[in-house]
Amino acid sequence: MAYTQSTHLSYNLRFPLASLSSRILHRSSSNLFFSRPLTFQALKSSMADTNTNNVAVQVFEKDDLAVSLAKYVADVSNNFTSQRGAFTVCLSGGSLINYLRKLLEPPYVDTLEWSKWHVFWVDERVVPKTHQDSNYKLAFDGLLSKVPIPSGNIYAINDTLPAEGAADDYETYIRHLVKNNVIVSSPANGFPKFDLMLLGMGPDGHVASLFPGHPLVEEKQRWVTYITDSPKPPPERITFTFPVINNSAYTALVVTGKGKADAVHSVLGKSQNSVKLPAGLVSPEGELKWFLDKGAASKL
Ligand SMILES: O=C(O)[C@H](O)[C@@H](O)[C@H](O)[C@H](O)COP(=O)(O)O
């Protein structure tokens, strides 16, 4: 078994797909990784034709996940704020926000260029912003209210509209921001290219509000769409579609807990199901990194 000393695995350390064809990286202590043979052929074949991305999978102990996620987000943020003076980041709901907590500690809280952040939601529940189910409220209370991001750079949905109207409104606004060059878009397909997409995954393998077997998983035209029968409450939500999610420069999938081990196995394991879970359809143009804890990785 080959051991590799690695104290600073960050997004800068790229894993060409070829090298991933024979290994998965597992965290075995605070700074050691071991690689073990794992066939990534199936993973490769699950990717869209156009996909040439890099994929990394890392398994963490307890607090290490939040520490590493903060460094990853900070590195991506610094990259974009220094290169083009803006950083567009999309947040999910759920446990993700808690895993971003180390961004509120030194050095990040003082050194990140928060004024250049532009914050969006990968998906949002159609409830008032003050409602306890609101992803905006979750992120605002847990992160955004504690850092100096200009309020005009925080793009919440219009919570006075029903689901369909809120989705249309969010897409229209994003189109406006693409026109104004706040959000980059791909010349090839016209879809917005967000700098960083931060995703969670449910035990059923859903990402954003794209649920297994739901027709929204197939949406190819819309940037933002809506659902009124979400199996995870609340039922009414808006969500980015896969063409937008998969157009991102960087994507992190943050997945923890034993309850998600089956879905993780189904997406990353050796014998992959022919019917892909939504998480298995996350196949971005750019880099994808899975942040797992031991529970979520327990069946790999
Ligand atoms: O609004 C939502 O419900 C989310 O955006 C959803 O996609 C979430 O990210 C996953 O369900 C994982 O949530 P947990 O990490 O809390 O399990």
Automatic annotation (TrEMBL):
Domain Glucosamine/galactosamine-6-phosphate isomerase: 62-290
CDD domains: 6PGL
Gene3D superfamilies: 3.40.50.1360
Catalytic class of the enzyme: hydrolase
EC number assigned by the record: 3.1.1.31
Catalytic activity: 6-phospho-D-glucono-1,5-lactone + H2O = 6-phospho-D-gluconate + H(+)
NCBIfam families, alphabetized: pgl (TIGR01198)
Identification of the protein by name: Probable 6-phosphogluconolactonase
UniProt source species: Psophocarpus tetragonolobus
